[in-house]
Amino acid sequence: MPVKLFNHLDEHSVLGLWEITESLDWLQSNMQLTVEEQQYYQHFRVEERKKQWLAYRHLLVHMLDGQQINVIYDPSGKPVIKDSPFHVSVSHAGHYAAAIIHKHKPVGIDIEKVSQRIQKVEDRFLSDLERKHLNAVQKMDQLCIYWCAKEALYKLHGRKELDFKTHLLIDPFPAHGEGALTGKIIKDDFDQSYELQFLKVDDYYLVYVLDF
Fold it and tell me: What is the pTM of this model?
């Protein structure tokens, strides 16, 4: 079963996770793309990227009860379901594709695999205070959650020119398998706090946020 996680968070929002076990041929033949989407799809050269792109569309169709969709992108690169009231955010990594939709308000989601490579860039996306609260035992998990949380906030904000280190800030948190954490977007005269949820699936962390 490709849908590994399917949760109605409330009456207006749905969270979904698709485990990509299908072949590229299956994903292509079972997805109806518009001419615009087909042109976008042709830019992908790597098979894994093609599968991820198609998989999150299959997931969105499932989350919208089989409704055919046309996903376009706004000037900031944020996905939009054309002619639909739903706000959407998507993410993919490895053999997973994730999505969250809300009927009225912006959302953000990110999924990443825990990897030591993230240590090489931690100084680029963590503030001094965030680095201070890293735990040697849980460091890899914490770094992955920090990154996912900041990506989710970035997507929720929906506009570019946000610096991960200075504009997106995460309060200290214990890196258990799942839980909640608090994040902030601070830029110019914008200062807003959000509660984010995180959970671990295999070797991946998934973080999502709703704009309440």
Answer: 0.94
